[in-house]
Amino acid sequence: MFARTIVRSAVRPVSFTVKARTFTTKARNTTTKTSFHLTLAAVGVATASAFSYAYLQKSIAADSKPIAGVQGTFSERTFIAVKPDGVQRGLVGKVISRFEERGYKLVGLKAIAPSKELAEKHYADLKSRPFFSGLVNYMTSGTPVIAMVWEGKDVIKQGRAMIGATNPLGSDPGTIRGQYAISVGRNIIHGSDSFESVEKEIGLWFGQAGELIDWTPANVDWVQADN
């Protein structure tokens, strides 16, 4: 009887020691896994931060020049928009082709359904005109406007010449309006008429960082050289 008691006493500490070791091992594994997960999380945060920084740097670089470029130089910019009627008639590609084939560079492009506020700000100089309300309703009808920024020498003046007169019936043959439109209320396209208008209109339609991209075409020497 006494011997059995001794044996039991001797066995119990061993069992306790095994459990204690098992618990210690589990705790160590849990700690290792936690540390591993924390390391992964830290790497993820660092990677995301690096990606965000790279994106911000790219956006800043894209907007490095003045929003309207420099007037009278090859970096001069203009705002061109294909209106809802031009979009509905499938003329967006033809308008883009005109400017591309002339040698101008596209630095901003978006399809946008303008809000009433945006349309009213864009046409603020026409607010006193009797057709103002109808014009705003037409621009905000739900059909998108294709807003663009083109860059190149004398692009503001040349862009207006390529578009043609406000009244298509008074536009020269071969201009965009002279070829594709017959009504003032559905004259397909808008183009800035001055450097001041360019600054205002690009600011309204492309006011967010990174929306305008400064890039160099491969054929730049064949388009811009003066010699």
Describe the structure.
By secondary structure, this protein is α+β, with helices and mostly antiparallel strands. 54% of the residues lie in helices and 11% in strands. The chain has nine helices and four strands, in the order αβααβααβααβαα. Strands 2-3-1-4 form a four-stranded antiparallel β-sheet, sandwiched between helices. The relative contact order is 0.15.
**Termini separation (Å)?**
117 Å
Helix content: 40-55%
Structural class: alpha+beta
Q: State the strand order across the main sheet.
A: 2-3-1-4
Please tally the β strands and state the result.
4
Task: Supply Rg.
Answer: 33 Å
Shape: globular
Please name the defining characteristics of this protein:
227 residues; four-stranded antiparallel beta sheet; 9 helices; disordered N terminus; alpha+beta
SSE blueprint:
Blueprint: H1 2-62, E1 77-82, H2 84-88, H3 92-102, E2 105-112, H4 116-122, H5 132-139, E3 145-151, H6 155-163, H7 176-180, E4 189-191, H8 195-205, H9 220-224
Antiparallel strand pairs: 1-3, 1-4, 2-3
Question: Brief description of this entry?
Answer:
It is built from 9 helices and 4 strands, in the order αβααβααβααβαα. With 227 residues, the chain is α+β, with helices and mostly antiparallel strands.
